[in-house]
Amino acid sequence: MNQLRSIPFVLLILFSMLRVNAQDLPKREFRGVWVATVGNIDWPSNRNLTSEQQKNEIINLLDLFKKLNFNAIIFQIRPSADAFYNSKYEPWSYYLNGENNKPPNPYYDPLAFIIEEAHKRGMEFHAWLNPYRAVVNYQEYRSNPFPLTYEKPEWFINYGKNKYFDPGIPEVRTYTTGIVTDIVQNYDIDAIHFDDYFYPYKIHDQVFDDARSFASHGGNFFPENRDDWRRENVNYIIRDLYHTIKDLKPWVQFGISPFGVWRNQEDDQRGSETLAGQTNYDDLFADILYWMKNGWVDYILPQAYWHIGHEKVSYDKVINWWSDNSFGTKLYIGHGMYKLGDNNEPLAWNKKSPTEIEKQLELNHSLSNIDGSVFFSAKSFISNTYNINTALTDRFYTHPSLQPVANKSEKFTPQPVSNARISKVRNKQYLLSWDVIPENQSYQAVKFLVYKFKKDETHNLNKTANIIALTGATQIEIAKKDVNPGESLIIVSVSRNNNLGSPVTVRF
Length: 508
Hints:
The protein is α/β, with parallel strands linked by helices.
């Protein structure tokens, strides 16, 4: 970058120190993508990459989703009882370098790296954990096996191809809480995110043998009520984790991405008009409604991976049910992007224009309780089936969007930016930059919205079409051709829980 040269004759800086009124708040939308590490689905692309190659893949993924105006990454940091970070509890993941407990060489911490890079781009980072899956394909030989499975064999149950922590053992819940505490304390994450795996999906003719833990910890539950006991075990861990997270860092969110059907209406009149083969309540023992009613989750993200018109579980019926049963909890919808263009899927996923995803997003935007979407998974955007990336940016994600407020109970209003200025970088580029007033963690400005308004245009911050950037940096480059004399740039600081500071205006 060339030496910056101040050009004070070009601009007049005006500081708008009035608070942003409610009617001026920009429309918010959660736009996320799951980045799966289990089985190397999305990252790293294989287990033989160098540290630098791993980093480059991260950068390329984040750049892609920034270009698509996404604002959140849900990254799988613990696919089983392993870690893509420097954990004091569990070994480095086999999926990182092809061997359990083998750190990157040259060393770096993938979690710290991707958090920093996501935040530079104004994106939230949601740390995706699987709470109970301990070993994937436990009979497959791997060097340096997970030592806890030998030290505490009573904690684990083999079921299907996998080994699971037994949710009925109180010490397991304590251990899981320790894992989450370690992450929240040591990394600047925006959320802890659990997927749909609590008790495992049922396998025909196989028994999840938790008879021993039920006998030891079943308390007053009768044998015929073991399912109620299992649900209570999951309730305990959700409640304890929510309060643990909020006690440590109240702005860190706790989100759950459950299977798309809570219960079928034929089993419970409160359920959805669906005929799902398994459900959260009856098979995974996850009573999502109970958690929302008690305020134990900040957002719910049901995996609605069916198409509109599915004969047993139709997408429209699923999301309408969740919209009617979110109990004030932020509601985002999970889309099965991986099905798009798959010839093994129904015809609905193979129609090119409009695609099934576009139809689903249109339906989402018609329901006021739905605050965003998340897509599984990242590699689907790399393949760009039916040119879906362009369809998203042309029709739905045309401009950057701020994420929803993370914690309604505590409002952390950041200070406005200071010393906003414009400098010439190159003949055809300007640099808009600003400073941040230091604050404590809660009130610190961590990202910034930048608007551009034409000369004499009303500065309506609710007009998302005027947003030109959502960034974690304290500067952006602007092409000279994109600004004209008399136009205004407005910078709005954003706190960790997505509250806004007062706007600051820079006028050409």
